[in-house]
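Reviewers asked in the last cycle whether our approach scales beyond single polypeptides. To address this, we selected a multi-component target totalling 604 residues and predicted its structure end to end. The input consisted of the following lines:
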Amino acid sequence: MASPLLEIRDLRVHFETRRGVARAVNEVDLTLYSGERFGLVGESGSGKTTLILALLRMIKKPGFIAGGKALMEGTDLLALDPEQVRQTRLARVAMIPQGAMNSLNPVLRIGEQLALTMREHGQPPGEGRLAELLQAVGLKPEVARRYPHELSGGMKQRVCIAQAISLKPRLILADEPTSALDVVVQRQIMQTLRSLQEGLDATVLLVGHDMGLMAQFAQRLGIMYGGKLVEVGTVEQIFRSPQHPYTQLLIASIPSFEKKGEFKGIPGVGLSLLNPPGGCLFHPRCPKALPRCASQEPQLREVAPQQLASCLLHEEAQA
Amino acid sequence: MERLRSFLYYLRENPKLGIGLGMIAVLILFGVVGRLLVDPGLAQPLSTTPRQAPSWEHLFGTDDAGRDLLTVMVVGMPLTIRIGFLAGGVGLGLGILLGFVSGYLGGKIDTVIRGTVDTLLTVPSLVVLISIASTVREEISIELMALVVASLSWMWPTRTIRAQVLTLRERAYVQMAKLNGMNSFEIIWKELFPNLLPYLAASFVGAVSWAILATIGLEALGLGPQNEPTMGMTIYWAITFSALIRGMWWWWSIPIAFLVLLFVGLFLVAAGLDELANPKQRRAV
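The resulting structure, written as structure tokens, was:
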């Protein structure tokens, strides 16, 4: 495997609320390799968006980064001063936003918007570079003279991707970039993103909960639950032999053409971050829970080559 | 050229803006062209026969002190408009600065600015204006007059602009600008400001209206520049020399008619710009 690009160690993001501290991201360890496509999956509130916002240092009060490191090419993203943060954004770590519909300034032409951010990083683009960028994401160079309201949703998302790659970042964070688009456009956008990622040899961290999309796009997957990473593995491993009970239920809940019958969800509701259960966070909903799951916290450990899961069932097996 | 054409085309869709701008333009032209046709000296006291009703020689008549009222209008209208634009401009400028800083940066600065504005808004402005104007009365000039009025016309703009900025700064594209490494100043200037332009234009017209009204109020009380024939001062002299009961109707009705034209014009422009700034208010065609 390629060399590590980003090493997240023990990342914690807490939100201080009136009713106590919510641990939105808790003790997350994750390594991303250069040139890989990594998918981060989890239900709403599981901390996936908070994780990428922490990497970009966009956690707003009452939230704060309570601890941890995010080493990228020798620097800790979490220890940069504000000016370094500004320089890192877009140039080294770029973000593709969730709602491309609202992510473009309605009163600026596309070309001006792309140029604006590039100029901020001291790399003013020429006419040619703008055309090149737009063509790279499958748009005509003429789009530079258009206003956002003249573009379709898919085209706007392409513009956002063009902006994200404009400074050739090493790491691209994509927060459900296609959630507002129809499936045909979704597929085209993901293909565009994939070919650009391969061309730049950049790492893409894709956040979302569309398992089908993840299966097609990502090489490795991480599953988050309640702010913790519960399982990491290759797409093959996660889909064929999920090791954590949550992942197993998640995979089992994917509708399929072969299996007929009632649609099965995961029983219970997502946990409250303000009042998390003791022990394993998933034990109240877990069909395989043991008595000691309520008191003992499982650790993420290797269960197969390149596959990690945090579940006491495996600690049992190894012991 | 292309822009002018599309602007003229837009005016057909938004007649309020067109008519309002037209009225203001006519009033300004009245002052500019009028200066070429009449002798400005006739606006000074004792320059012609006093107490003349409108006639071919004195189209708008003359006042008690021997000023030709047509000339007074020609000289006074631009003065009044100038005070309004100066005071409105300074007031709005302060409002933009404080509103953007307060709304975008938030925190302690916001608390201080908002607290000051909210406190000052409760102070009846006319009282303050009267006390300032009567202290500096002796040497008051057009520019000083404008500054006195501007000193109390920045609070509403600050408050409303701050409110607009508060909603704008949470928009996804502003967040993205931040995530793309733009600094605060650039975001305010290049992302927020262009979005607020129509709103700021409407605020500007509102501020100008308010400033002219405040100026005329002060002048009608005799607190304006004594040596300049502004609209408000003309009304002041008409009141002082009891034009109403002496049957000199032209003395008070003509400046009032001009002011009505000015205010209707400003109102129409403000309403038209409001429509431009809030497309949702546009009538369904």
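Chain A touches chain B at residues 56, 58, 85-91, 94-95, 97, 99, 102-108, 116-117, 120-121, 160, 163 (CB under 8 Å). We regard this as preliminary and will revisit it once experimental data from Aim 1 are available.
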